[in-house]
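Morning - nicotinamide-adenine-dinucleotide inputs below, output right after.
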Amino acid sequence: MIIDTYLKKTAAPGPATLGRELLLIDGRRVPAVSGKFFDTLDPSTERVIAQVAEADAADVDAAVAAARRAFEGAWGQMRAADRGHLLMRWAELIRQNQDALVELESLDSGKPVSAIRRQDLPAVLDTLTYYAGWADKINGQVIPARLDALTYTVREPIGVVGAIVPWNFPLMIGMWKLAPALACGCTVVLKPAELTPLTALKMGELALAAGIPPGVLNVVPGYGKTAGAALVNHPDVDKVTFTGSPAVGREILRGAAGNLKRVTLELGGSDPVIVCADADVDAAVKAVIIGRYWNAGQACLGCKRVFVHDSVYDGFVSQLVERVGRYEPGDGAVKAEKPKLRMGPIHTRQGRDELLEQVEDGVSGGGELLIGGGTGGNGKGWFLEPVVVAEPADTSRLMREEVFGPVLPVSRFTDFDDAIARANDTPYGLGSSIWTHDARLIHRAAQEIESGMTWVNQIHYGYDELPFGGVKASGYGKEHGIEALDSYVEIKSVVVGGLA
Ligand code: NAD
């Protein structure tokens, strides 16, 4: 419906948008104090979708004050079980409104409707219901430290959380932060990426409609250097949870130092995949393709550098190239009519230019471009045909930097120790995988590859129950699982004497 409305408007001459979107602060949709708006674009057509109120420090102040009131008031005073019920009702409303959310996310992010409907939206619901179920199970422990005293711990919510998210999975990554924070009894000021602010506002409205009190979830779209920095530096924010680039992660650490905020950082990745001589090559190729080209390769987690044993290298590469050739990037606006469309555009022109430069660097340094790299000429939309580069130098940008798009370098190895060393030769440490049935190699990879997560004969994929997060420049702190809950609480020890 939203896409239909938008298409009708864009078919007409002149500027045509879905309208103006305001901030969400203390349960009300309000303009920015500055009165400013910014445009949000459809990356498939480069047309403006909507004008969005642009938050800056003054709006962040108001949002943090509202979050503090809600933390000390309605939300903080609510029985944990009742918080859980409200989160469940929110999930129900998200389910009922999923068509609108899917279409809005698709327009704003360029992702195919079919992908959001099949993957992102169900993942959002799973995460929310998983943590809604946890709300009344966040216990302390009685720990027998003394015989003459009662000694126990309590888990107390940290307070006001600033959540800053990127544009690649706006709904999903937003929920990774909102659900555990709210389940613990924290309140949140959410700053969506300036490129994809629309669904966060809609989610905030649905939270209110579910009965979650005003001020518990505030949404302040705006730019990183203004709204984002104001949130990070705010003296009344107790924790910042951030997903984005390592460069901004470092700025966040500096900003958080003022009042020693707790910080969770989910940064980039350059996940290695090791395909051994005994691997099921067919299964590995299929998994690598999904792992690399999912979301047009714009994912932190994925199969970003593949090392294939010399004995199976040729077969792996020929299957890979044949299957990658079936991918065809497609226009966001018509994605509703193409249920099989698997790849949308790159999110910005700058992002696509950078990918092309990384490919060029890999090829000029000795790699061979096996397929892809076309951009569809001068038509609208920042499309990129999926790329495979064979054996670029290990020192090339393709191997040293995070490659945030549908570009896959494939390398050859003969010695397993060497493969592990090359896998670790990166600043990043998010995920990794190995394809083999040799138990010794499986355990060696799980222990020796420097990453927060390792998959064996499996695609890189996260689960709500399992902690998710990286090491090295991929950040620290965990999302998902009970570990995420612990990042939104302080554990207090209590010793009650005088009982004997
Ligand atoms: P980015 O770091 O540029 O921006 C992320 C968010 O931070 C945006 O909301 C932005 O407005 C905000 N921001 C920018 N500067 C800021 C500042 N000075 N202070 C506070 N906030 C600021 O990242 P991006 O380009 O939006 O996303 C791509 C990056 O995110 C990639 O590196 C990718 O790997 C990473 N990522 C990581 C994960 C993960 O879970 N590890 C998941 C998705 C994306």
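Note: The radius of gyration is 23 Å.

O.
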